[in-house]
From TrEMBL:
Belongs to the DeoC/FbaB aldolase family. DeoC type 2 subfamily. It comes from Gaopeijia maritima. This is Deoxyribose-phosphate aldolase. Its EC number is 4.1.2.4. NCBIfam families: deoC. It is an enzyme of class 4 (lyase). Signal peptide: none annotated. SUPFAM superfamilies: Aldolase. Keywords: Lyase, Schiff base. It comes from the Bacteria. Pathway: Carbohydrate degradation; 2-deoxy-D-ribose 1-phosphate degradation; D-glyceraldehyde 3-phosphate and acetaldehyde from 2-deoxy-alpha-D-ribose 1-phosphate: step 2/2. It catalyses: 2-deoxy-D-ribose 5-phosphate = D-glyceraldehyde 3-phosphate + acetaldehyde.
Length: 321
């Protein structure tokens, strides 16, 4: 499994308010569809192990705790280089060097540490930015934070939006904000966190997704991991349908990153199923799909160990950092 090259950027387009205003989402239909994801397709044995390895390569291995230290970030980066134990990969007939994570995601304070720890690995560093997780610092401060993380070596920037722009229907303000974030990113890829758990409705999540894509975001991301409700399948389905519609109209493929509360291998398989069924194989690669997760890897490694040995080991045998 070789890491894909970064996809072309999303250039964005002018804000089309009529398109945003006409959006309707049928919540009960979306919830029904989300509920069928785990029942219609079951991924078994070798295929399941293959899908779990794919999930690892699509993972933004994350630490976003207020007690993060350089040591913790260095240990996480070591894990990012070798996310699955070599003997498990060998037993599955997979090359030792073939599996690495999509990115390591940290606060700005640890970008330099992570860049140094990942040198030569090809694994990009993603920085959360713009006063993550609330996003309420002055605009100049938020833009300066993006520029500082890019200067420190971050190749991906995960920004948070002003939720109030969505809650008041101020689409122009949201568009201008995301556009300014994108400009500040330069060549770094922009992931826009909508914090859908705070947006009230699926319709708002769809509309905010469209506006962020029109403003040129390269990925839309569900959550910071700090909201009361983070990545749910109904909200994921809604955002993925927005990016599908954006792709149909603009010809541009935008990436998707569910994040927050995704902890089990079973969850990972459900999200991959959603992507495969709604938008197809291009979204099963790190160029267009990432999990934002701090503890998912431990359960995936445990399931892979079970696949190889037939036994489950304790979680403490799979430390992440
Ligand atoms: O962006 C990633 C999230 O902050 C991770 O959330 P989590 O700790 O619930 O996995």
């Amino acid at each position: 499994m070789v890491q894909d090259p970064a996809p072309p950027r999303n250039p964005g387009m002018p804000l089309e308010l009529d398109w945003v205003e006409q959006v309707r989402v049928n919540r009960s239909a979306v919830e029904r569809r989300a509920a069928t994801l785990g029942t219609r397709r079951s991924v078994k044995k070798e295929w399941q192990a293959g899908w779990l390895l794919r999930a690892v390569t699509c993972m933004d291995l994350t630490t976003l705790a207020s007690d993060d230290t350089a040591g913790r970030v260095q240990r996480l980066c070591a894990k990012a280089r070798r996310p699955v134990r070599p003997e498990l990969l060998e037993a599955m007939g997979v090359q030792r060097t073939a599996v690495k994570v999509g990115a390591v995601c940290v606060y700005h304070a640890f970008v330099e540490t992570a860049v140094a720890a990942l040198e030569g690995s090809g694994i990009p560093v993603a920085a959360v930015s713009t006063a993550f997780p609330h996003g309420l610092a002055p605009m100049e401060t938020r833009l300066a934070e993006i520029r500082a993380s890019v200067a420190a070596g971050a190749r991906e920037i995960d920004v948070v939006i002003t939720r109030g722009h969505v809650l008041t229907g101020n689409w122009t303000a949201l568009y201008d904000e995301v556009r300014a974030f994108r400009d500040a990113c330069g060549d770094a890829h922009l992931k826009t966190i909508l914090a859908t758990g705070e947006l009230g409705t699926l319709r708002a999540a769809y509309r905010a997704s469209l506006v962020a894509m029109m403003a040129g975001t390269d990925f839309i991301k569900t959550s910071t991991g700090k909201e009361g409700v983070n990545a749910t399948l109904p909200v994921g389905l809604t955002m993925v349908r927005a990016l599908r519609e954006y792709g149909e109209r603009s010809g541009v493929s935008v990436g998707f990153k569910p994040a927050g509360g995704i902890r089990t291998a079973k969850d990972a398989l459900l999200w991959l199923t959603l992507m495969k069924e709604e938008v197809g194989d291009p979204w099963l690669h790190p160029a267009l799909f990432r999990f934002g997760a701090s503890s998912l890897l431990a359960d995936i490694e445990r399931q892979l160990e079970h696949h190889v040995t037939g036994r489950y080991s304790a979680f403490h045998r799979h430390p992440l950092a």
